[in-house]
Structures are given as C-alpha cells and as structure tokens.
Write a structure and sequence with these properties.
heterodimer; A: about 200 residues; seven-stranded antiparallel sheet; about 20% strand; elongated; B: about 190 residues; alpha+beta; globular
Chain lengths: ~200, ~190
C-alpha cells in the first residue's frame, strides 16, 4: 500500500548527488519527457512513466500538481498486460484446424510463426491492462526520497524510471547506510567492522 | 549526507553482510520494551512502544534461512523466547507506538527499518473528521505527516541502539541485562 490509499508503506532512498538548482521547470520538463504513455488501444505489453500524484490520468505536471511544501511528489505508473502461453496455444490450435480445413495441410514452421505472432498481437489487444501506481516523494532539503510501497519489484521499477528521468544516483536506506549517516564519523569504522553479536556468547 | 563506504564495496554485499544490525536492533527493542516500554523519543519526548500480535524470528540467510512466526495476542511470547534460545533474531514485528500526539500500529522489517502498513489508532491531527472528511490532497498530506513522525521515532531509537551497540557498555552492561531478563523465560515448562 502506498501513501494515497490504505495504510502507508514506504521505502527510503538517499539522493547521492544533487543537481545545482532544482527549479519547477527542471522537474516539470523531466517528468513530461518521461510521462506515462497510454497503451490501452495497442498490443504493447507494458508502459512505464510518470503521472500526477493525485490524478493518475494527468501528465501535465503544472508545479501546483507536484509541489507540496517541503517536498515534491509524483507517481510512477506501470501498466502491464500478460498473455498466458496456454491461452495462446489454445487459440493457435483453432487457427491450425482452420488452416488445415482451408489448405488441406498443416502450416509449416514459417507460417506457424506468422499465425502465432498475429494471434498474439490480436489477443494482447483484447487483454485487460493491470495498473500499478508508485508514489514518489522527494524531500529536497534532506535529499531523501520515499517510494510508496515495498519489495524488490517496486524498487526496480522506481530505480529504472528515476535513473531514466533525472539521472541522479540514489541509494537505498537500510540499517547499515542509515547507521553510517547517524553516528559520528569517527565511529563509522567501528560500525563497518562490527560482527553479528549473539545474546548468548561472551565476546 | 553521503556515506563513506570502504573502497571496492558493493552496496548489496554490504547490505547483506550487515543485515544483522536491523535484526539485532529489533531484538533489542523488543526485549527492552518487555522490561520498560517507555523510550526517549525525538526532542526529549517520551514514546511508548509495544510489540504486539506477531513476531517473526530467523537465523541464517538464503538457503540456510530458518524462520519461526509467533502470533500472540496475549503478548506472553513463549515461542519467541524459545526461538531466541536457538540463536534466532527478530526480522519483522508489529509495533504499537504511542506519543503525546498520536497512537499508531505498524509493521517493521529488520532488513530496511522502513515503516510499513502504518495505521493510525488515535490522533485528531491524522484522522479525517466524519462531518467534514478531508479531500484527497488533505488525506495524502496527513499520511505523509504521520509516516514522517513515525520514521523520525524509528531513527531516534535506532541511533540510540547503535550508540549503545558500539560502546563498551554493550558487553559490560547491556548484554548481561538482556540475559538476566531472558534467563527465567527460557525454561520451558514440561507438561
């Protein structure tokens, strides 16, 4: 669950390099250039791009749509459609029977490939899309980014789109990276050298 | 806020190698909360923290991973204490946080320490008024504010743990304190 609906879950990142000046135009241009492209009427299997945080159909990105005081926010939208191999094979079987009735022979390998590809495109166009939304919040003062959701799949979607859009390196905040940020610099070496400690064994 | 990594260290390797930090933190937090559930919070405020309903404890990583899930509405955690005895540590917990301003429940995974499924229990600041429900933007900002406060509390507690963990007091005082607490709980009654 993200930050708009349900109980919020976040994954935290630190921005490792900040652009010199982050203006509204800077953000707007990059979001627009990488905005979501609708694939409803096509046979495309997936589309990934940005949409406005409060309206996943809008890709205008007026500053009022992404500026929220101390942070900017937008959503990554991933539309996917999948066609099961079993479904394709079942429909292919009907086509093969049809071909046999018309020509008196089974399709050769080239014809078989052509029928399958046409069928695949046709079935994909008729397959409903699944839409996933991933809210992204960029706290500019702290250079921290929150992604609404958790798990490797969501992290990879965010990292791909972020890299493509802003080209700025980010690093996941996990116990070791958080720890190195939190403790005084002189203790960093001790933390990096630390080993797991059992409750039951004396050091 | 860049972090100095040792040269030639890949992030994923380091994350894996130091995965124990989050697990030790949650284990310490759980045991300490069983003794006294009041912790120093942000800006000197007090935070009440209780582990409830579900604890996941594990040993090992990857194929060597061994897990036990303890569901315990009564909070006596007998199975979880036994799991500690076989070197398991807490990898995920359901935590209830109470401050002067709000009370909420959340799931806390040891591998990221990022708040998950944060659910407000009480707190006028974060709940919609039934008579005048907030619009979508207002609700969103409320959620962000709630998660932000929860995140700050977790960060403060984790910093406190790390300072202790890296000090001489860890082996001299803290581990003996935890062992003293655990010893009577480790004896499983024979039925």
């Amino acid at each position: 669950m993200g930050l708009i609906k349900g109980t919020p879950t976040v994954t935290r990142y630190r921005l490792l390099e900040a652009p010199e000046e982050v203006t509204d135009e800077y953000i707007q241009q990059r979001l627009k250039r990488n905005s979501f492209v609708d694939i409803e009427a096509t046979a495309e299997e997936d589309s990934l791009g940005w949409v406005e945080i409060l309206d996943h159909l809008a890709t205008e990105f007026n500053p009022a749509s992404f500026k929220f005081g101390g942070f900017v926010a937008f959503s990554a939208r991933l539309d996917t459609r999948r066609l099961a191999a079993r479904t394709l094979n079942r429909y292919y079987h009907y086509k093969e029977v049809e071909f046999l009735a018309q020509t008196g022979r089974k399709p050769n390998s080239v014809k078989k490939r052509e029928i399958k590809e046409n069928l695949r495109q046709d079935l994909l166009r008729r397959t409903l899309l699944n839409t996933d939304l991933l809210e992204v919040l960029w706290f500019q003062k702290e250079q921290e980014i929150w992604v609404g959701g958790a798990g490797e799949k969501k992290r990879l979607v965010f990292e791909e789109l972020w890299e493509r859009t802003f080209g700025l390196s980010v690093r996941l905040l996990v116990p070791i990276t958080l720890g190195l940020e939190m403790i005084p610099k002189e203790m960093g070496a001790s933390l990096l050298k630390s080993k797991a400690c059992s409750l039951w064994e004396e050091d | 806020m860049s972090v100095d990594f040792p040269p030639n260290t890949e992030f994923l390797d380091l994350w894996q190698e130091k995965m124990f930090l989050g697990r030790e933190f949650l284990t310490w937090l759980w045991l300490t909360s069983e003794m006294d559930n009041r912790f120093p919070g942000p800006g000197g405020s007090a935070v009440e923290l209780t582990f409830e309903r579900k604890l996941v404890l594990e040993t090992g990583l990857g194929q060597n991973r061994s897990q036990v899930v303890c569901q315990n509405p009564d909070h006596d955690w007998t199975e979880a204490f036994v799991a500690l005895g076989v070197y398991k540590t807490v990898t995920r917990a359901i935590v209830r946080l109470r401050t002067d301003v709000f009370e909420c429940c959340l799931s806390l995974p040891a591998d990221t320490l990022s708040p998950q499924s944060v659910k407000i229990v009480t707190g006028a600041e974060f709940t919609d008024d039934d008579e005048a429900p907030l619009n979508q933007a207002g609700h969103f900002l409320n959620q962000v504010s709630l998660v932000s406060q929860v995140k700050t509390i977790i960060d403060v507690l984790y910093r406190h743990f790390l300072t202790l963990r890296l000090s001489d007091d860890w082996t001299a005082k803290e581990l003996p304190r935890l062992r003293d607490f655990l010893e009577p709980k480790m004896t499983v009654p024979v039925s």
